[in-house]
Amino acid sequence: MSKPVLFLKNASIFQRESLILSEVNVSINKGEFVYLIGKTGTGKSSFMKTLYGDLPLQEGDGEIVDFDLRTLKEKDIPFLRRKLGVVFQDFKLLNDRTVNDNLLFVLKATGWKDKKSMETKIDEVLGKVGMKTKGFKYPYQLSGGEQQRVAIARALLNDPELILADEPTGNLDPQTSVEVMEVLQDINKNGNTILMATHDYALLLKYPSKTLKCDENQIFEVVQKTV
């Protein structure tokens, strides 16, 4: 058995002094597509933030892409994030730069130097999300769905071992949500591991997969009923 890309044992998630989730036991293996569901305020975002180093793990054991979350130091967080792809609900694109320059900015910030390699990589990730012809455009010239595709492309730049998608369809209409979901499904079929927080239950029915639920300070796996 290969080692899980994400592993938490008897972990407690805190937001400052407040206990958000307790006794968290989660394991995600390479190549899995996993949903994280739960009502607003049940701890989905706090859980995600702990995984990418925004909140410290104060109790229990946790490991993500070979980083120990309990001993994670401030200086290690940029290196952790290079091995993760993070996709947010609100895209977080730089509006004063074109799509290509948004991606170039990330590559330079994560230590890429060779111009040709960077251009090739940008072309490759935009191709994966069906945005190859839109590299010259600015984010404000794109629809919400297109902006989220670019955000997914950005998450793929450093060949992440795990993609954390936090409500990636939260700001999109149902049709666009399906299009973005198709992109994520394709990426997963190509071998990328994905953990996606969502409150869009229609997507869970359309694309059933392993599901974790946040409820009453706990995270547990839900057995999906086949429709």
TrEMBL record:
Any one of the GO CC terms: plasma membrane
Q: Which UniProt keywords apply?
A: ATP-binding, Nucleotide-binding
Question: SUPFAM superfamilies from the xrefs?
Answer: P-loop containing nucleoside triphosphate hydrolases (SSF52540)
Give a GO molecular function annotation for the protein. ATP binding
Domain ABC transporter span(s) in chain numbering:
6-227
Q: Which family does it belong to?
A: Belongs to the ABC transporter superfamily.
PANTHER family of this UniProt entry? CELL DIVISION ATP-BINDING PROTEIN FTSE, IMPORT ATP-BINDING PROTEIN
Task performed by this protein: Part of the ABC transporter FtsEX involved in cellular division. Important for assembly or stability of the septal ring.
UniProt protein name: Cell division ATP-binding protein FtsE
- Source organism per entry reads Planktosalinus lacus
Write the gene name.
ftsE
